[in-house]
Write a structure and sequence with these properties.
The complex is a heterodimer of chains A (107) and B (122). Chain A is an all-beta fold and 107 residues long. Chain A is built from no helices and eleven strands. Helices cover 3% and strands 49% of the residues of chain B. Chain B has 122 residues and is mainly β. In chain B, the strands form two sheets. In chain B, strands 2, 4, 5, 6, 9, 10 and 11 form a seven-stranded mixed sheet that branches. A four-stranded antiparallel sheet of chain B has the order 1-3-8-7, with no helix packed on it. The chains are: A mainly beta (107), B mainly beta (122). At the A-B interface, strand 4, strand 5, strand 9 and strand 10 of A face strand 5 of B.
Chain lengths: 107, 122
């Protein structure tokens, strides 16, 4: 099974800062990589699909890039409402795997 | 609006069974694959099972294979998860999630329910 290594596990940043999270797959997954936001006590929400495509209705400050094994998720200007845990997720050969999550806090 | 609502969670003893339901509304349920994803308290997300839009194929995580069964009733717009031989490590919030791959070619979980808590404890 493909393993996803997400880093960092947590970060603290100021409002307006650029925030970057990385996700590495244990083998080539092309662009089958999605990013989710989960606020405390809530269900996850799809933000980015196929590595770089913004889901409808998601603010443009969120973006994703990468292919193969290395992927990046970026918040261009952190807002107070972005406090959440972010997960990467891959799909390959009837296997769906999530990264460990990155908890984003305001400094 | 597009909505998924889970039910059926609760406290159950180890070795016993429980059936979860997920009621869909606001979209053509029979056109979408559906998944169950779970989250143990304070932990990350774990994929559990998937069923094709027409029920023709079902796949499971190794951790639940042989104990859990996913099914659907497209006439009732409802997804199910039958959980047998429950263990303490099955304690989690269980989410149903929609898979739009058969409709728009995107392999993701684009709509989620609010989740239902399952606690396995004696």
């Amino acid at each position: 099974d493909i393993q996803m290594t997400q880093s960092p596990s947590s970060l603290s940043a100021s409002v307006g800062d650029r925030v970057t999270i990385t996700c590495q797959a244990s083998q080539d997954i092309s662009n089958y990589l999605n990013w989710y936001q989960q606020k405390p006590g809530k269900a996850p929400k799809l933000l980015i699909y196929d590595a770089s495509n913004l889901e409808t209705g998601v603010p443009s400050r969120f973006s994703g890039s990468g292919s193969g094994t290395d992927f990046t998720f970026t918040i261009s200007s952190l807002q107070p409402e972005d406090i959440a845990t972010y997960y990467c997720q891959q799909y390959d050969n009837l296997s769906w795997t999530f990264g460990q999550g990155t908890k984003v806090e305001i400094k | 609006q597009v909505q998924l609502v889970e039910s059926g969670g609760g406290v159950v003893q180890p070795g016993r069974s429980l059936r979860l339901s997920c009621a869909a509304s606001g979209f053509t349920f029979s056109s979408y694959g559906m998944h169950w994803v779970r989250q143990a308290p304070g932990k990350g997300l774990e994929w559990v099972a998937v069923i094709w839009y027409d029920g023709s194929n079902k796949y499971y995580a190794d951790s639940v294979k042989g104990r859990f069964t996913i099914s659907r009733d497209n006439s009732k717009n409802t997804l199910y998860l039958q959980m047998n031989s429950l263990r303490a490590e099955d304690t989690a919030v269980y989410y149903c999630a929609r898979d739009p791959s058969s409709v728009r070619g995107v392999d993701a979980f684009d709509i989620w329910g609010q989740g239902t808590m399952v606690t396995v404890s004696s």
